[in-house]
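Quick one: structure for this chain?
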Amino acid sequence: MDTFQAIQAFIAIAETGSLSRAALKLGKSPSAMTKAVNALEASLGVRLLTRSTRQVALTEAGRIYLETASEAMLQLGRVSQRLHELDGEPRGVLRITAPLSFGRAVLSGFCPAFMQRYPEVVLELQLADRYMDLVAENLDLALRLGHHDLPGQIARVVGDNRVMLCAAPSYLAQAPALHSPHDLPQHPCLVYRHPMLNPAWFFARDGHSVRIEPQGRLRSDNFDLLLDAACAGQGILPCPRWSALHHVRAGRLVQVLADYQFSGESFGRDHVYAVYPASRRNALKVRLFVDEMQQWMACHFSDTPAAAASGSSGSKLKS
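Got it. Here's what it folds into:
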């Protein structure tokens, strides 16, 4: 086993904490893994691992070496990927995180078209409403409703995240009048709750602002559940455009208080951002995914239904 393979063996053992699991992961025998790590330690002149009959643990030198070796292997992998993409065809695994509701409303339509166009790209989607660290969790890209200005990361706008206050026609037909935010206490609100975010709703018009604490019998940390409830006539829900526009066009929802600008911390900023480490800026699969998602969202979530029906002549992806 050469030095490159010996480093792979060491990293696998360190990550799994087990010689047998690491051997299974790499398709090697435990004895071959032991021989490789012994040779690596001999060449470095330090002990990297302490071994017992039950477990394997890193020494202090092993922790230092693991940090550097892991980064070096990642960089080698990226260089190899770029060499394979010299023919202009993206390849390999693209690891993405996005909010749960964004996956259902947007990625479920976009990703099949993207995969059909680029058959050698494998998509790994981690949908979660919690914040996921790109570097720590080895992700290539995050789609965020409001980005974080972190060193070493690039954020690009890929879509519209403006919020529409919506209700079903069946609800509005029997509900009290709704002319201003001050009428909302008379209506059941569907409340999206997140432990780290302020659930208050804010409205602005003509230089005046109104803060509303939404009240209702249905509250959830799952936006899709609330959206289904709104379509079923259970109350009023603020919806990002990408989640609600097809329901509005189909007549399942109606926008209310459209002459007010709505904002709320629970729904992020006015844009959807693609965020990725600066080290991924030259990765062809990342660049194509971001570019084509921007085109796809402009086509499907524009202000004019006709644009969504016909698409943009410059767009590469259509469903």
